[in-house]
Amino acid sequence: MIKLIAATARDQARVREIAGVATRFGLGVLLARLGFASEGEAPDTGALPLPRRTRLALETLGPSFVKIGQILATRGDLLPPDWIAELEQLHSDAPTLDFETIRAAVEDALGEPPEAAFARFDAIPLAAASMAQVHRAQLKDGREVVLKVRRPGIRKAMEADMRLIAELAALVERSSAEARRFEPVTLARQLRQAMLEELDFTQEGRNADRIREDLIARPDVLVPGIHWDWTSETLLVMDYVEGVKPLSAEALTEHGIDPKAIAELGADLVIEMVLIHGRFHGDPHPGNLLCLPGNRLALLDLGSIGHVGPQRREEFLGFVMSLASGNPRALADTLALWSDGHGVPRRAIDRAAEQIVQRHGGGRIVMAEMVPDFLRLLGEEGLVMPPDLLLVFKAFVTMDGLLSRIAPGFDLSGAIGRAQARLVADRFAPGRLAASGGALAWALAGLGDDAPRLIRAAIRRIEAEPAGDAATAAAIRAGAGWIAGAVLGGAVILAAAALLL
């Protein structure tokens, strides 16, 4: 298969490397399943199952392929549970680089040596990932910061990978009916967008500023400040935060932090970000969260955030509440919205809704158990999950798993129910009412302009029909007049309300 890729000369070396890794991890079976012949016999890979070998190969190939696996890990509607469980273990850890190998890149980004820019700079990195590594420093005013430095040459390598992945995706989509279910071309586009965002550290800085502004009324949540004087595409400088990772209740208790309070805060936070602001941390795992004294949370690593529009937020809330109440009819209505235009029979939608309610509805919902089962059921019944909601489900599953670790038995779905009052209050906030009321008044005003014409046309149509008795015709005309008056009156009232807000 790899040989079929019409790579340019500059990418041929990478093609050979990919082929070598595929052979090394014995992925000929996987390639054959996609409709291609393997390029040789695989070496002895022991008793490792195919999903694990695939995960190891993706990690070996680097950040572009790790990102592919992370995207696929959200597609429980396409992959069986053993594949999802394996791909969810993908990580971007990498060995640290000696600072002297990246010094030139840092100095180019800062415009001077880091020892001159900062009162103190630690050449030994705190941590490293496939795209960057982190160093600690101190500003000349005494504030502690960290520098996130992009690895030199990583953009060029990843751009080559993205070219190859796009070509490979198109080839697979044309050649394999089984692989076509994964929508490889769409996945390749998602990958490119995600990689371009994460490669540009100014994007992460802007994400942090936006999330901080969203949560400005929450003193219990900290988003580190960005120091824009030193931040660029290849270098991010932000406040240093010291805290405890939410790995266990015992670890939090040892530092005087209440696990139950953190669990409640985490639930409220993910609900507020998703359902109120429509902008949320796409991967709230323990490595991206820190617990602080006073039962507070810090959000880290905002290179990639999710977005969800108002309509999708209402649909997601309706999904959760209809499931919690054990209402398969309401749940089916939501599933029908998501599958609209894909030719899914209503009976399949009703069947899926009834099954998911029977298994997980009518009480406490364990997201980490329900979502994989739900996505698998969608695949079996041929239903469709909107791509923008997949990341929402993943964020809730990740947070649910984290909260269950530090506060066993915590009910995230219950927190969603408690958030309904906040959602209603947000919808009727003066600013929202002014905007929505004004828009509605404008629409109704237009309707008011058209209403007399439309009603006159309706009356003429009625009069042209075979005659009924005179009293009925008079009643119809009178009713039409009342309708026109009501529409015009409603427009006036809403317009006045919008002006007074």
What labels describe this entry?
Phosphorylase Kinase, domain 1, 4 domains, 3-stranded mixed β-sheet, 8% strand, 5-stranded antiparallel β-sheet, 501 residues, disordered C terminus, 60% helix
Could you please describe the fold and organization of this structure?
The chain has 501 residues and is an alpha+beta fold. The protein folds into 4 domains: 2-91 and 173-197, no CATH class; 93-152 and 200-240, Phosphorylase Kinase, domain 1 (2-Layer Sandwich), CATH 3.30.200; 246-427, no CATH class; 431-500. Helix content is 60%, strand content 8%. Strands 1, 2, 3, 4 and 6 form a 5-stranded antiparallel beta sheet that branches. The chain has a 3-stranded mixed beta sheet with strand order 5-9-8, covered by helices on one side. A hairpin with a 3-residue loop joins strand 2 and strand 3 (132-138). Helix 4 crosses helix 10 (184-199) and helix 21 runs antiparallel to helix 22. The protein is globular. Residues 438-445 and 486-501 have low confidence and may be disordered.
